[in-house]
Amino acid sequence: MQANKRFTQLLHYIVVLLLALVFFLPFAYTLYTSFVTMQDVNKLAGMPHWTIDNYKLFFTNDAYNVPKWFLNTVIMTGLVIIGSLIINPMAGFALAKLEFAGKRLIFWIVVATMMVPYQMILIPVYVNMAQIGWLNTFAALTVPFLYQCLYIFMMRQFFISVPNEFIEAARLDGLTKMGSFWRIVYPLAKSPLITMSILAFAGTWNSYLIPSTLANNPDQYVLVVGLNSVKDMFFENTPLIMAGVVLSTLPILIFFFLFQKQYVEGISSSGIKG
Amino acid sequence: MSKMKRLTVFMLVSLLLLVTACGKDNGGGIPAADKDESQEKATVTMGFWGTAQDLKIYQDAAASISDQYPNLELKIKQYPSSEQFWNVLPGEIAAGVAPDFIKISNEGAYEYINKGLFTSLDELIAPSDVDMNRFAASSADIWKVDDKLYGIPNLTMPSMFFINADMWKEAGLGEYPQTWDEVEAAAKKLTKDDVYGITINIDAYHITNYVKSYGGGWGNGKTINSAENVQALQKIFDMYKEGVAVTPKALGYGWDGEVFANGKAAMTTGGYWYKGYLKDANPNLNYVALPVPKGTVNGGTMISDAYVVLKDAKNKEAALKAAYYLTNDKTQTEFLKLGFNSAVTSLSAKYFEENPEFKAVEKALDYSTDFAYPAETKKFIDELVKQLEAAILGGTSQSPQQLLDGIQQQFQ
Amino acid sequence: MAAYENRNAMIDHSRSNRPSWLRSLADSDVAVGWLFTLPFLVLWVWWFLYPFAQSFLRSFQDVSFTALNDATFIGLQNYIQILNDPEFYQAVLHSLQLVVIAVPVQTLLGLLMAVLVNQKMKGQGIFRTVFFIPYITSQIAVTTVFMMLFKKGTFVTKFFTLFGFEDVTWFADTRYALLFVSILFIFQQCGFSMIVYLSGLQEIPRDLYEAGQMDGASKWAQFRYITLPSLKPVTFFVVSVATLLGFQIYDQIAAISRYGALGSPAGATSTVVTYFYQHGIRYMNIGYGSAAVVLFFFIIMFITFLQKKWLGDKE
Q1: Which residues are within 8 A (CB) of C59 and not within 5 positions of it... i.e. 6 or more apart?
Q2: Across chain A, which distance is largest between two alpha carbons, in Å?
Q3: φ and ψ of C5, to 5 deg
Q4: pLDDT grade, residue B394 (50/70/90)?
Q5: What is the DSSP letter of B75?
Q6: Which residues form the ABC transmembrane type-1 domain (chain C) (predicted)?
Q7: Considering Cα of C282, then C283, then C287, then C288, what sign does the dihedral take?
């Protein structure tokens, strides 16, 4: 029995390690490429060939205002996450646990909206933004994205698993349906909310198409757009682009590493029980 | 109130405040011209995408424009990429916030001119005091469609042919090739192990050079399946069949410059911008630049950049003046140092002093010509590339004649 | 129930003396339902429905690129033209192939990874982060790296020869290019599915397992009869989102086609989104492109509807 358990554990480690190796490889290569010169792209160069010039360029060239872009990104991402944490769970809860006319329609609205590639509505959105003078403002980058159908859908799927008796019990204790959401269901949905925050953070932080269209003035660039503007007219300086990728990915990486600790088996789930 | 609720209300309120504040805070999207209406000064915006070095030159020029035109203010609006520019342009035009003029290459310009995107400049030239005699006639001609001028030329340069000089010497080859037949023979000797004699990028730019050197061309869509074009394509197919040519993609590279820089192919067609790339990608590479080899005639494409005024520009005359100002000797000399040959005739000689490796190509200035793609340029380019990829990478058995006939049918 | 009682004790009863109409409103499904969906609906109408309606109208128009307001109504002509274009069917077929390959694999892999890193082990946080990295790294960067790995003669393509593949540059081969894009998609989407499953696993009541253990159920039986059924709503979400995103995959294909025509090589990776992009934006035929999206919209809608049925999502 003991030996069997040891073996399972060992197997577990081997599988995880192998998968981790595969999943880390591309990032490792990105990291490596960001530290070499263009001559060594596509080759494996030894330590002496490594350089931090690619990173240096971003912080020394006047055309690249990395701190400003970073700040812009933080503001944009922060506002979107705050909005997401309020609007999406509310709608998700209504769709999962409340009975009202129009509910099915709203659910299919949520699903259908996800199916339209944003490129299709980008030009009308741009024109509407211009008409109300929002171009190159944070309003343009955040207001239309305070809700995301993806996460409304996700929250609905999580709230469906919350037993109805649970809300009923809260109501017996004198809470309204609204109250039972804010005071019982919402605080206990910690791990889905963390998941949503992580995903919304990554999605917003990394977005390119929308910010590069709605805020295309270098002062209003967000990090990803700014770091992407290093592209040459005719060819790509791959190491420089990779250095940009590493710079823009690191904050999400740190964010994720800090928040994933919240997924602890058996603790956060102590609330919602049948 | 419970903590949770208070927090939520607080977040909602602060969110609303922030959002409204941001909305009012900065009306950066409102065209600057509206604000300056009370003043005499005209503000012109140039749309631009490119490197940080280019941006610096343009910003310097913008700072000094009032020396020559006291009533002009020039703003440079940088776009993250050309793709991004074209994505957003329809919206910008509809919203009235598009730039007044842009710099564009002749490779895609015919389509936009045909779609009526740019202003014809003829009637504006005289009142704006633009001296078109400063520019080489060959480059100004490229910007004429139906005898109407659409651009102030900025750059003009023939395409060229690059050879890895070390590989050439190593293979014991003598004189550099002047015809595609000589190239083909040399490619056979240069091909060994994992090195190919020549890399032929399946890309409209490169293919067009082959076609022109056989006296062919696209004729704006009228002569896609001409005998000359078929002959040129046959040469490309032959070199692939013999195994002396390779596409960059098959080796896992993005474009031919990478293949050439990494020593995986000894020859390629190319352009002036390869110099900057090769310097970064492989500074030890010894290469020579020659005119595009002859098929049956001297021929190749001429690359030209020009400033074009958008149809919807508010003050077209001011836009033209600003565009013309950017061709001043000082700005052009700065670009010259970066490897761009000026369309201003008096500066062109200096270019070949600054860039001696391109000296051999100077004579191609006389006979290289515009791309002459069909009016639906992008569609044509995509179709040409798709069909060639299908034949060369996908192994369809279409002959060059069948392939070009098929495309011709779609572009009457 | 212990934990629930704890929470219950914290409830503050002092404000039950609010006006009764307000209270009954706050307890009514209809009122709360609409109130809770209102912020979403307002933003949605303003920033989705309105611009979408504009684009939808364009699908019945011949629109000039330079003058969006200068359009002529041409009825269903765009739609008819698309339905007569063999390239459209090819694009739909590619999109379907991609989804059929990628979605099941990424779902299973995501679940496997979530289960693996949900168990206590050394370096748990690191492994979770590593599995999540591909999802947060720019798609273009991951594609660039994959293009360096999947070219002729590398250890990756040599490894795949064990499974009968030829040692060629995958994205330059018309037979393998779509599979290459599918692998890219699986690789990046797994991290997403993993963390959704990870939080799904947290929500499974502990006592279900305790009961299972008392009945002497094996680990596998617990997984099969407790974990999997509890994850059903999450699975519906993971599968439909992967399907949607799979249909909308664009950046990776654009990166492969960087120096060629979109959908390179030779259209082997053309999908409905690249079809829209090519016609609507590149060729500046916005009406035509919009019509393609509208047509495809109905196809995905139908598929999601089926998925909802099959995966037994309850309402």
Answers
A1: C78, C79, C287, C288, C290, C291, C293, C294
A2: 72
A3: -65, -35
A4: confident
A5: E
A6: 92-307
A7: negative
Q: What CATH number is given for B24-156+304-358 in this structure?
A: 3.40.190.10
Q: Is the dihedral of CA C289, C291, C292, C294 positive or negative?
A: positive
* Residue B51: pLDDT band with limits 50, 70, 90: confident
Question: Rounded mean pLDDT of B31-37?
Answer: 42
C97 in Cβ contact with C268 (< 8 Å)? no
Phi and psi at residue B101, to the nearest 5°:
-145, 160
Give the closest-approach CA distance of C32 to chain B in angstroms: 16
Cβ contact (<8 Å) for A188 and C7? yes
Tokens representing residue C171 in the block: 């994205």
Question: Tokens 């290469």 correspond to what residue?
Answer: B287
CATH 3.40.190.10: which residues of chain B?
A: 24-156+304-358, 160-300+376-410
Question: DSSP letters along B290-355, please?
Answer: EEPPBSSSS--BEEEEEEEEBTT-SSHHHHHHHHHHTTSHHHHHHHHHTTPPBSBHHHHHHHHHH-
- A228 and B280: CB-CB below 8 Å? no
Contact B249, C171 (CB under 8 A): yes
Q: Among residues 53-82 of chain A, which lie with CB inside 8 Å of chain C? A: none
What letter would DSSP give residue B328? Answer: S
Residue B92 in contact with partner chain A when CB distance is under 8 A: yes
Contact (Cβ atoms closer than 8 angstroms) between residue B54 and residue A230? no
Contact between A234 and B26 using a beta-carbon 8 Å cutoff? no
CB contact under 8 A, C266 and B201: no
Tokens of C218: 């094996």
Helices (H) and strands (E) in chain B, counts: 18, 12
Please choose, from the candidates B348, B279, B337, the residue with its C-alpha nearest in 3D space to the C-alpha of residue B135.
B348
C49 touching B (Cβ < 8 Å): no
CA distance C105 to B155: 52
Residue C120: pLDDT above 90? no
Q: Are A202 and B13 in contact (CB under 8 A)?
A: no
Which of A42, A83, A130 is facing B29, going by the closest CB pair? A130
Q: In the numeric block, which tokens belong to residue A60?
A: 């020394």
Domain ranges (residues) in chain C: 2-58, 79-311
Q: What is the pTM of this model?
A: 0.88
User: Which CATH architecture fits C79-311?
Assistant: Orthogonal Bundle (1.10)
Q: Where in chain A is the domain with CATH 1.10.3720.10?
A: 62-271
What percent of chain B shows pLDDT beyond 70?
90
Q: Which amino acid is it at C89?
A: Y
In chain C, the percentage of residues whose pLDDT exceeds 90 is 51
Q: Is A39 on the interface with C (CB under 8 A)?
A: no
The alpha-carbon gap from B29 to the nearest alpha carbon of chain A, in Å, equals: 5
Q: How far apart are CA A157 and CA B20, in angstroms?
A: 33
The complex scores an ipTM of: 0.88
Name the CATH superfamily for A62-271: MetI-like (1.10.3720.10)
pLDDT at C109: 96
Indicate the range of A230-244, B394-408, C121-135 predicted with least confidence.
A230-244
**Predicted pLDDT of residue B88:** 85
Residue of A nearest to B3 (CA): A183
Q: How far is CA A9 from CA A13, A75, A264, C110, in A?
A: 6, 44, 19, 20
Per CATH, which fold does B160-300+376-410 belong to? D-Maltodextrin-Binding Protein; domain 2 (3.40.190)
**CA–CA separation, A181 vs A178, rounded Å?**
5
Burial per residue of B129-148, b for 16 or more beta-carbon CB atoms within 10 angstroms, e otherwise: ebeeebbbebbbebbbbeee
Q: Write the residue in B55, B273, B282 that is nearest to A234 by C-beta.
A: B273
Which pLDDT score is estimated for C1?
34
DSSP state of B146: T
Least Cα distance to C243 among C118, C116, C98 occurs for C98
Q: Which of A33, A69, A127 should one mutate to test binding to chain B, selecting the residue with the greatest count of B CBs within 10 A? A: A127
